[in-house]
Amino acid sequence: GFDRGHLCASDDRSFSTEANKQTFYFSNMSPQLNSFNGGYWVTFEQLLNSWVRKDNAFGSVYDKIYVAKGGTLDKLLIDYKGTKAGGDGVMPATDSNGFTSKGLPVPQYYFIAVLAHRANQLVDIATSYQAIGFWVEHRDDYGYTFEHPLNRNDTKANAISIDELESKTGIDFFCNLPDYIEDEVESSYNVTDWAW
C-alpha cells in the first residue's frame, strides 16, 4: 500500500557504500503514498541535491546546506482509503487513528527545513546564511510520477519561513546558530534568494 519513503535520500549519501546503505534503515523510512513519494517528494530531493552539487556547469550554489526532514506524528492521515495502488499493488489505507494495518503511523504532512551557507559572503556573517522551510500535505492526487515529476518551480508554493515551520512542528530548527543569526534567517525567506 505505502512506499518506504526515504527521509534522507539515497542520492544524498553516495560518498560511500556504507553511508548509502544506512539510508535504507527503517529508521530513515516513512510510509508515503506512491505518487507522493515518486513524483512530489523526489522533486524536493533533487532540488536540494542540486543546491550543493559540484558536478554541474556552475559549481555548487551553496558551500553547505543543512537539512532536516520529517513527517508529522501529531497530525496523521486518518481513515485514509487510497485511490491509487502502491508499488506493491495494494491500496494504501489507514485506520481511525492514522495507522497502517502493520501499525505504522502515516503523517498527514511532511516538512523540510533548509539552512544554506555561502562562505564568500564576508561582509556580514549573518548574510552568509539563509533558510527556508517547506510544508507539504501528504496526498496521492498531485498527479506526478518518477517519470513525470513536479516542476521545481512549483515547489515554491510549499515554501514557508522556518519560524512558521517551527510553529507547525514544535521543533526548534538550527538552534546551534548564534541567536542573532538564527532570529534573522528563521523569521522570513525570499524565494528569489534560492536557485530553483
UniProtKB/TrEMBL annotation:
User: What span is annotated as the signal peptide, if there is one?
Assistant: none
What range(s) does the DNA/RNA non-specific endonuclease/pyrophosphatase/phosphodiesterase domain occupy?
1-180
Q: Name one GO molecular function term.
A: hydrolase activity
Entry-linked Pfam families: Endonuclease_NS
Location of the ENPP1-3/EXOG-like endonuclease/phosphodiesterase domain: 1-180
Q: Which keywords does UniProt give here?
A: Endonuclease, Hydrolase, Metal-binding, Nuclease
User: Active-site positions, per UniProt?
Assistant: 6 (proton acceptor)
User: What residues does Mg(2+) bind to?
Assistant: 37
Q: What is this protein called?
A: DNA/RNA non-specific endonuclease
Q: Which organism is it from?
A: Bacteroides uniformis
The lineage, from the top, is:
Bacteria, Pseudomonadati, Bacteroidota, Bacteroidia, Bacteroidales
